[in-house]
Amino acid sequence: MTCSHYSIEDGIAVLTIDNPPVNALSQAIRQAIIDAVASTAADPKASALLITCAGKTFCAGADIREFDQPPLEPHLPDVIEAMLASPKPVCCALHGTVLGGGLEIAMAAHGRVAAPETKLGLPEVKLGLMPGARGTQLLARLVGVEKALAMACSGDPIDATEALTAGLIDILATGDPIDAAKDWLNQNDAARPTNERPIPLIDPAVIDAYLTANARKFRGLDAPPAIARAIRAAMDLPYQEAAALERALFLKLRAGPQSRALRHLFQAERATAKLPELEGVTPRPIDRVGVIGAGTMGTGIAINFLLAGIPVTLVEQNEAALGRGVATIGKTIDGNVASARTNRDAADQAGALLTASLDYAALSDADLIIEAAFETMDVKTAIFTRLGDVARPGAILATNTSYLDVDAIAAAGGRPADTVGLHFFSPANIMKLLEIVRGAETASDVLATALALAKRIGKVPVVAGNAYGFIGNRMLAVRRREAEGMITQGASPYVIDRVLEGFGMPMGPFRIGDLAGLDLGWSAETSTGSTIRERLCEAGRHGQKTNAGFYDYDERRRPSPSPVAEDIIASFARDKGIAQRAFGADEILARLLWPMVDEGAALLSEGIARSASDIDMVWLTGYGWPSWTGGPMFHAAETGYAKVVGELEALGYEPSAKLRALAAEQG
Ligand code: T1G
């Protein structure tokens, strides 16, 4: 299939690239561009070359699928150099998302014209890469060192207006970008090649300061420092030397583990919503949502829909709780405005879509009703029993339960085919993960509706089977069991937290316990002191909320190791007669991660998780797993499943048959 078309129009050669869905720069496209530059140069009837793309976007980058294949000539730098050396001017007519190698092609032209909705960026860093075809060198020349550094290290695109202001494009085309590009070419027959433009020099300390200011965001990532080094070289070295350094740094990243992990996650994210069994299934229309419960989860859930322009009816059982919920929603959305995540108009529109009520009857016109009430089966089944009477026929009933049996809750509502689990992660308006729990009788169109809705509210959906803790919390329970088991044998909770945070998790298990509250599900009346958590709670140490849990907290809630907590742990171990020993960091990490991976294997064998990559997406988007290791299952695969099996056995575990099978498959 031809993927490009070359013709002469009004004395200008026009190359139209047509490689759906995103005009990725495949080998054929790279060759077509080189051929078009040569044809234009040799054709006396062509005064210039215009490059444009058919379909929804100009080139959106190199073809990611080629990265794990043997490299194919011509390489993208060869294309860039051919364009820069063109004896006749080249202009690109841009639209859609001009990203990565696509922007490099655009910058290698002498001029750039963009349609108003165009986005332009260098997202390679999100794939553990950096621009590999002169992107840092050309961008620094067009927009300056500081902006080039920020664009390449953040990977965030800018819009056409900002690009015009910054000097990245020459014309913002209000009409057809192709016509505007032809006009530009007719008026600029002696434009200077981008690589011959001077770079406005800046104090190199600005580059280091940028990396320092973003150290938390770039933590653990190899690409941002490499990008900074290439951009620094643009200032210090002749173009070809700096370009060669950029290419060498790119190739090293591309061959490295971090890019493999991030490319895995790029594909994993796109795979979570692709269920073959839903091909051709039409989602139900969702124009109005009901949320029951105006607590932390209910308000966070409601905000997602309000900001997506979907009206919400929020129901609580008393005025005080309802008022608190409405106030929380308003305050949170205002906070979004303050942090520029939302603009004022959008915030006002979102607020106007909220209806608050104490009456279930207010839910009778909702297309979807989400229960976000107290996490006990009694409360949830009582609510679903009422919903069965109130909800209109065809309304979807969803529970936000974190652990409980969705089928039992569905049975209470009497409409199991219309019932599904929608497990949001706290804070529900921030965390990307939405576990969609398929009940035994959940209808296919209900599942399709949940998947479509997830995308509409900006969530990453992962479909889970109905079993205790679904995917994420079931694996989290294993990690907590292992962590709390180790501290009874002499490991320090503070060392355990540091080991896991050093691996890249945002917070260790004991910091998390204190944050969530050690007294979840605990009561003084029934406490028996049979666990360390119970003994901490009996001592009034409920976690951060009491300024004491596993850690002590100062007035600014900064944690510090607690001798009191250590004594409680030691006395527990003495009472239980548990032998004490030292734990090294490697053993701690292995005991935290590999049993989780084995539980992930069990989820796969039970069909609760559909794929290992789904499990990775749950941990990336629900728990902050360090992206540069690709998720728990990818990390285990990269380590070698056989090695994981061996380490589990050496630590006294019996790995599951499924994990052994994964090791055998991996060979
Ligand atoms: N290569 C190959 N396939 C790609 C692709 C790419 N660059 N980008 C997207 N696809 C596929 C994607 O897998 C999906 O396939 C389909 O297109 C629709 O994607 C040398 C080294 C462009 C904003 O990082 O950000 O250039 O599942 O569902 O929501 O210096 O895709 O249908 O089979 O995401 O409309 C840099 C990555 C590469 C851009 C469109 N470029 N892509 O979003 O559709 S590295 C990127 C995106 C590079 C150079 C460096 C988005 C999009 P399928 P989609 P979308």
Task: Walk me through what this model shows.
The chain has 667 residues and is of the alpha/beta class. It has 27 helices and 19 strands. The strands form 4 sheets. The protein has an 8-stranded mixed beta sheet, sandwiched between helices. It has a 6-stranded mixed beta sheet with strand order 1-2-3-4-6-9, with helices on both faces. It binds (2S,3S)-3-hydroxy-2-methylbutanoyl-COA (T1G). The site of (2S,3S)-3-hydroxy-2-methylbutanoyl-COA has 24 residues, from β5 and α3.
Number of helices: 27
Q: Quote the CATH topology of the largest domain.
A: 2-enoyl-CoA Hydratase, Chain A, domain 1
C-alpha Rg, in Å? 28 Å
The distinct ligands, each listed once, are: (2S,3S)-3-hydroxy-2-methylbutanoyl-COA
Average pLDDT: 96
Please give the order of strands in the largest beta sheet.
Answer: 12-11-10-13-14-15-16-17
Distance between the termini: 37 Å
Helix content: 40-55%
Structural class: alpha/beta
Low-confidence stretches: none
Strand content: 5-15%
Tell me about the largest β-sheet: 8 strands, mixed
- For the record, the CATH class of the largest domain is Alpha Beta
CATH architecture of the largest domain: Alpha-Beta Complex
- Any idea what the CATH superfamily of the largest domain is called? 2-enoyl-CoA Hydratase, Chain A, domain 1
The overall strand count is 19
What general outline do the C-alpha atoms trace? globular
Total individual domains: 3
